[in-house]
Fold this protein.
Amino acid sequence: MTEPYLTTVLEEAEHITEQHDQVARTTDNQAHEYLRYAVLRVLEGEADHLPADWTPIDGVTVGYGSDDAMYDSWGSSEDWWETVPPQEACTRFRVFFPDDHQTVPRNIVDVMAALGAWRVWTGSAAACGSYDHRERREVHYLWPVVTNATSE
């Protein structure tokens, strides 16, 4: 089930490298940054190529960043850090969706599973950061930083 979503994320990341190379220009790990941004574009329905069975969800917003950096910003004020403490060398995705969904929407689950990310928290969106939280829920996923393997 996750294969079309992995293909979609990889195709979108390739498109970003060709059309939006500035996304990762200043990062140490460009491949990881392109993939993170591709996930954002896919889940927000902005990707150029989405799976045929994709059902867009209005109101999905994705935020992401280094788990350590997010903890530094919000660790003292948000209770979701008590569930899973900050993980070194991981990206935390905060995915906001309308609260009329009883569970995390399937396309979010499938995209994140295809990426190999694991869910660490789900709950009511709180007024934190620059994200619109009104009548929304959020789910957090952790994803380890992809390293470039090189041979010498």
About this structure: The first strand starts at residue 61 and ends at 66. The chain has one domain: 3-144.
